[in-house]
Amino acid sequence: MVGVRAKDHDDKRQIILDQAATLFARQGFHKTSIAQIAKACKASSKAWIYHYFPNKEAVLTTLITDFLELVIARVSEAVGAVEAPQKKLQAFVLECMRIYDEYRINYPMLFAEMSLLPAEEQKPIRALERQWVMLLRGIILELNPGISNRRHHAMVLTLIASGSVNWTYTWFDPKGPMSQEEVAEMTTRMLLKGLAAV
Amino acid sequence: MVGVRAKDHDDKRQIILDQAATLFARQGFHKTSIAQIAKACKASSKAWIYHYFPNKEAVLTTLITDFLELVIARVSEAVGAVEAPQKKLQAFVLECMRIYDEYRINYPMLFAEMSLLPAEEQKPIRALERQWVMLLRGIILELNPGISNRRHHAMVLTLIASGSVNWTYTWFDPKGPMSQEEVAEMTTRMLLKGLAAV
DNA sequence: GCAAGAATCGAACGACCGTTCAATACTTTT
DNA sequence: AAAAGTATTGAACGGTCGTTCGATTCTTGC
Fold first, then answer.
1. Is it the case that residue B1 has pLDDT exceeding 60?
2. Residues B52, B39 contacting (CB under 8 angstroms)
3. Which domain CATH number covers B173?
4. pLDDT, tens digit, for every residue of B102-147?
5. Is the minimum distance from the CB of A30 to strand C below 7 Å?
6. Based on the domain organization, do A78 and A43 belong to the same domain?
């Protein structure tokens, strides 16, 4: 076929995303230049990036989108593999922390950056985020069906709980005194008791 | 005295900080230019800013420092005004949310931006942050003295709890269905039960 | 082998931005 | 009123960065 994309087109694209993720996490989005990403990919020109992405923001939005889709897929699977709602919560928390640790993505930073994008570009990302939150909300409702009576209580409680999970990024150190499994265990135990109290 | 600073020098400085806070919250640090801050202050030249701050980063670090000092002062006072540790936790959470609401500062964004600063400039800010965390840790230890046996447990539990409070920024809407008092109430109740479980 | 589009690259453009500088106006003490 | 230092300003500098362009090379179906 003439004029067809190279077989390794998607691979190259993925390399860009991987290198960009590392650089964004270390230096932030604005302090990372296209030239830097290209160099990290061992390309000799920054114009090379533009063959795979229309602009710099697209690298960011693709990165966040792919990441959230992965999180949702893996968390869904982990949660679906157990029956008891207590076990589901544990699986949810643990799987989130595992992915955060594997990918070393600075989620609060990406989140903040995303919030500055034009509303139209935020839309699909917000939708994925909502999926993630709704997954957690479902588990919380199973754990404590009573709260469904009061309007919005389930949602607010879910958002409060989500903070415990998401904020972990800002302080957790894999080389610290606790493993992610232990932190996940403590978080789960706290949430289990706490969520029953409202 | 010849060559003394004008009486309103500190006022002007504060105006810069206030306008910068608003702009940073809305557009982020990097997308806000010195010229924009100057214009928001009704100054006719961006060089004017440099009479009050040595550079743009100093505006950011001063902003965060002042904010954290205010938070610590107000939260300390609120916590000190009550006796029971349960009341202290409630006061802590409520006061944090009140300040966040009053000042409309995007704390997670400022936090992320601060993390990219040179280590030396981060130091005093990290110290203030630690003060805030330690305040919360003290309350948690009062609530659950048992955890002091296991090393690091109190600190990790504190950090997990702090996530619930700090993440509120990213989702709380004053025009939403719940007031900050109600959210603070729910957060406190959840934490009270949850923290006892570890 | 030729045509057409993909892949890659080097160079340049155009805009913006943080910072500096020199000059002017203002204030206050002596 | 003179001196000295502050307050403010407009203009310019130096650099960076995202993006574009044109050219070249490579791949592949006809």
1. no
2. no
3. 1.10.357.10
4. 988 888 889 999 999 999 999 999 999 999 999 999 999 999 998 9
5. no
6. no
Cα A11 to Cα A5: distance, rounded to the nearest angstrom: 12
One domain for residues A113 and A173: yes
Same domain, B88 and B181: yes
What is the pTM (predicted TM-score) of this model?
0.93
Q: Do residues A45 and A64 share a domain?
A: no
Cβ of A166 within 8 Å of Cβ of B163? The answer is yes
d(CA A134, CA B121): 39
Please give residues of chain A from 104 to 163 whose alpha-adjacent beta carbon (CB) lies under 7 Å from any atom of strand D: none
The answer to whether B12 CB is within 7 Å of strand D is: yes
* Residue with smallest Cα–C1' gap to D17: A33
Same domain membership, residue A18 and residue A38 = yes
* B162 interfaces chain A, CB cutoff of 8 Å: yes
Q: Cα distance from A28 to chain B (closest Cα, Å)?
A: 7
Question: Do A154 and A66 belong together in one domain?
Answer: yes
Partner-chain contact B164 A160, CB within 8 Å: yes
CA-wise closest residue to A74 among A101, A35, A41, A114 = A101
* CA B78 centroid distance within chain: 15
Name the percent of chain B lying above pLDDT 70.
99
- The range of the structural domain enclosing residue A6 comes to 1-53
Apex CA B154: angle with CA B170 and CA B106, to 5°? 15
Residues B71 and B136 in one domain: yes
Q: Is residue B38 part of a domain?
A: yes
pLDDT tens for residues A72-97? Answer: 999 999 999 999 999 999 999 999 99
Residue B44 sits in the same domain as residue B118: no
Is residue A116 a contact partner of residue B31, using CB atoms and an 8 Å limit?
Answer: yes
A191 CB neighbours in chain B (<8 A) are 190, 194
